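pasting for ref. prot 1 ->
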Amino acid sequence: MNPTQTRFSNIVHPELRDQKLHIFGCGAIGSFAAVLLHKMGVNNFTLYDFDLVEMANVGVSVYDCNDLGKEKTKALKSKLIGAEVDTINGKVDRHIKLNIKNEIAILAFDSMEIRAEVASAICKAKAKAMIDGRMGAQIFQMYVLTKPKLSDYMCTWYSDEDGDDEPCTAKATPWCGSLAGSFISNAVSKIVSGHPLTAKLWFHFPSMSMDWSKNVL
């Protein structure tokens, strides 16, 4: 056991360290989720992104000024010290061949169109679970699907044009990004441990209100 995990060793399931995670999108949501999950003991990641770290990313994610101009996947890999990390640099779509059977996928792209494309590939590859985190400046949404099917996922989906002004379209904030990483990390822990899952979650910062559903998707 990593000595940094001793304070929560009786809470986080020990099998978490053997779980491989695929993080699609290494911006605010993906970067915070990866760093927190690594602190929890996860040591095997595949990171997917096509973008570079820009100044706008520094204020809302785990990156700092030393990461500017670097590929997000490689900059994030450098934060996961000691972990086994594969990086996929480039755009992904429904035609990507994924080897993720019985593994967990986290959707964290900004674009809803790209999310749908990648969700199709994840479902086809028979992932153990898929977690979709969507955030704006003041709102966070999360959907958790075990043994995901595309038809179930598309019931939660809306186009970029039809989405409201917050999720995936508004400017981001560091507190929403870090909260997103926390909720996603908790969901991964529950999947691995077999504890009851919150399948749909919505958090609104201005009112500090939350709504959720335990119906498994």
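and prot 2 ->
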Amino acid sequence: MLAVEKLQVAYGKVQALWDVTLEVPDGEIVALVGANGAGKTTLLKTVSGLLRKRSGSMTYDGEHIEEASPPDIVRHGVVHVPEGRKLFPEMTVIENLLMGAFTVPQSERPEGLERVFGVFPVLRERQKQIAGTLSGGEQQMVAIGRGLMAGPKLLMLDEPSLGLAPILVEGVFGVITEINRLGVTVLLVEQNTQHALTLAHRGFVMELGRIALSGSGSELLANSNVRKAYLGL
């Protein structure tokens, strides 16, 4: 589905990604893990068109998307849920959700809302509530729901468990599994390495802008270097 090959990205003169190559197969959950500053968010921003590559290629369903605009990439079916939720705090839940459907015909939006409410029943009850007054966990639901409103084939999630209480983290990862079961491919960026690799079909470890390791989720969890560096074992 998504293929990134020898991708290089820089912020001015500062190189952020070095020859990054990875694949996200159709129907899988792929985890991208690593320390802060490793380049994980930069990769997602580049795939979603918010940053431009210096060199390399990105294809989605066999089509090159390096020069596509962010709206066109969403129309292709690639949707990015950013780190920190980035909601419109003074708008209602329903208004935030509908902001995610700007590429979807108006006639299809009610069906999209029902799909989101099926995944997050509490948002049906909260739909008229101002988003900024929700709990952190509920705001994360709105952020993911807004992404689902675009009808993604590939959903890229950047640190969905960030800042959540431990009891809520389990729920977020359960939702990711459910979304995948609904037929959505997931690229998950997450510092919670244990949860992410347990969930993932396959994973990539990024260090200093490069892919350092790759393998199935279980293989990486068993890797001594991963266990020492990211699990404290």
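The longest strand covers residues 14-24.
Residues 166-181 form the longest helix (16 residues).
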